[in-house]
Amino acid sequence: MITTTETDLIRDFHRYLNAVETQGEAIAIVRGSLEVARMVPGLSQQTALEVMRDLYGTLPEKAAKDWLNDSRIGSATIAELNNPWDI
Predict the structure, then answer these.
(1) DSSP assignment letter at 32
(2) Fewer CB atoms < 10 Å away: N or C end of the chain?
(3) Which one, of 31, 32, 51, lies nearest residue 43 by Cα?
(4) Tens of pLDDT along 45-59?
(5) DSSP codes of every residue in 52-87
(6) Could you tell me the pTM of the whole model?
(7) The domain at 2-39 falls in which architecture?
(8) At a CB cut-off of 8 Å and minimum separation 6, what does 86 contact?
(9) Where are the domains of the chain?
């Protein structure tokens, strides 16, 4: 975490904001010797495809193959999608 004063933050705001955005740094803003605020990175935004991209790599091999085949076939019914554990 980077610590800065209010004055330095105002003077060089763009540099601090870039550190938060590109390096994931948190910035502690102090006034006197007390921390009064923090700038922290926002939540990352991912598409559903990005989130699910590596799912098959965490599954057991057979489950990963089944998942991959099922995702390509598109044969699941609405009932199966609503409750995939009801086999």
Answers:
(1) T
(2) C
(3) 51
(4) 777 777 777 665 677
(5) HTTHHHHS-HHHHHHHHHHHHH----HHHHH-TT--
(6) 0.50
(7) 3-Layer(aba) Sandwich (3.40)
(8) 79, 80
(9) 2-39, 48-79
